[in-house]
Amino acid sequence: MPLTNAEVKNAKPESAPRKLFDSGGLFLHVAPSGTKSWRLKYRFGPKEKLLTFGRYPEVSLSEARERRDAARAHLRANRDPGVEAERERQAAIEAAGARFEASALAWHEDERPRWSPRHAQVVLFALRRDVFPDLGKLPIADITGPMILRTLRKIERRGAVETAKRVMGYISAIFIRAKGEHLVTTNPTVDLIHALKPTPKGAKQPALTTLADLHTLQRLVDNSTAGPPTKLASRLLALTAVRVGVLRTATWAEIGGIEWEAHTPSPDAIWRIPAERMKLVLEHKGDQAFDFDVPLPGPAVDALRALHRLTGRGKLLFPGHHSARLPMSDAAISTLYKRIDGGRYKTRHVPHGWRAAFSTIMNEWAIEHGKEGDRMLIDLMLAHIPKGVSSSELVYMRVKGTARRRVLAETWAAMIADGLDDPMAILDGQAR
């Protein structure tokens, strides 16, 4: 039976994606997030293919049927509807003179299925408010770095320094797409990050330093409305105590010693962070001897296995919302902490606070257990260089102390993960 408007309107999400079939291969895809989109299943030659018509209610049932009929007409003429749809889109861009706004909207349409409806609205609002008035009507090939910088400076002048950086990320992704379509030859945003204002440094960053408070925070994160990648980023930040910038730019190639499909222990699991991504003096950034090894405890391996199901096919552990080629926003975890529990954690704990928590709790543990010799290793686990230690001594200490650092990492992780849900429950939205 064909679908009715009432059935489409009242279709509810379930734990797994749903398909409500109409006729002629047309169906409504209902994602667990509640997003509804029209799709057409068809066969061209030996292959079965899928064509997306847009989201409901922006595309109504009657309009989806019209698009299905048009696609079927292409098939009868021995033309692939997917190829024809791409040709029509390219023709629209060319008809607009390859203007920036047309390219930006095409990029937004491409990326939107990967985003939540809310994030898609936020991105489009930022482009319309901050970018299109200056750049929208210009041919994208004529836009230069200084022109983009002037637009970003306007955002900075209203005090929105982080917003300026996010908008630059959107513009960069638009140019990457345009370059792939041969509309431009270069990406003029490449060096602009160095021209933007740095994030203002404030007072000492707040941090919770008791296990009870940290457990409460992490349970609130697990039960928040944030996406699974952001929740798992918070979990891994807590378990490894690395810097936020190092975590969000991590690649799967840096992780070793884990069998992804197995559920067996991984006693040799390691995260090898290249020296160039560490906070080192310039002379050491290209030296492999200064690569930083993070022993991965069991709870961190569990979190990584869950994350691998989401992003393991790509390069980055945490790809960004607006482009899989770029990392997660540097504000993603901090924004989550500011919003949970009515904003109560806004002034109590920031992502960097996990490093302070690790230092405080583990040093107290070392003293209480008569392990004061571990305190220098605890400092090394934060990638700090103890006073009076030379570069060569530092490399030696890191290698020699690997086994003990793994024991300390397991000790910390056991304390932090105590009472928390299995990371796989985060994927299913079943965290308590």
TrEMBL record:
Keywords: DNA integration, DNA recombination, DNA-binding. Residues 204-410 form the Tyr recombinase domain. The keyword Nuclease does not apply. InterPro entries: DNA_brk_join_enz (IPR011010), Integrase-like_cat_sf (IPR013762), Integrase_catalytic (IPR002104), Integrase_DNA-bd_sf (IPR038488), Integrase_DNA_bind_dom (IPR025166), Integrase_recombinase_N (IPR010998), Phage_int_M (IPR053876), Phage_Integrase (IPR050808). It holds the Pfam family Phage_int_M. SUPFAM superfamilies: DNA breaking-rejoining enzymes. GO terms for molecular function: DNA binding. One of its GO terms (biological process) is DNA recombination. The keyword DNA-binding applies. Gene3D superfamilies: 1.10.150.130, Integrase, DNA-binding domain, Intergrase catalytic core. It comes from the Bacteria. Belongs to the 'phage' integrase family. This is Integrase.
